[in-house]
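ingest -> validate -> predict -> emit
validate: passed (alphabet ok, no gaps, 223 aa)
predict: started
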Amino acid sequence: MSRILESYLLRRAVCNLGTKNYNRIFLSLARNLRKDGFTALRLKELLHTQTGDSGLWPDDATFREAWLHKPLYGPLNSPKLVHLYGRLNQTFMSAKSEDLVFATPPSVEHIMPQGWETNWPLADNSKGMTFTELFTASETDPRAIATRKRSVAVQTLGNMTLLSTALNSAQSNLPWEQKRKEMAKHSLLPINQTLLEMPLWSEETILKRAEELFNRALKIWVR
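emit:
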């Protein structure tokens, strides 16, 4: 039953559906389960009857759209993201894998950094626009469009991972070539090993990784 609740809550969090009616929903669940019996099947049935933004259990299509495209750094706080990537990391492990324990909790790393403008040129090799430049730029300016697109992609789930706090701080806004070397030296998490195979890191790579992680997420957080 705990896995069903985790799926319900995490899918709603990723889809940014809010928590304001949870007290009412969970009191109703408790009453019905006491009456009908505390079974996983009954819990699932009750959660599937929830409707509207206040209670909906997002389906796979809605979950996927949010997972791939929503800027979720901020709407999902650090503990939620650490839990999410920790669970995904487990899917990369096998019976042969060594257990890894952090002395202090890991932190969420933006692979393409939030301050990407300094060391991460756009696809046409131009520099990203500042907030002031964007404010005055035309909506049809190709550089402005590319800057806005990248700024959203940076905050999506495909662009984040877990690192030790020390490694995260040391990497800061480094370009990908240097980040990749540092991760190869210091990160042992299986979820990060596939990143080392990427010669470039771009919006296209972010989306591709998001798809790969989503396929794993579907097996963890089943509706």
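The CA atoms of residues 103 and 113 lie 25 Å apart.
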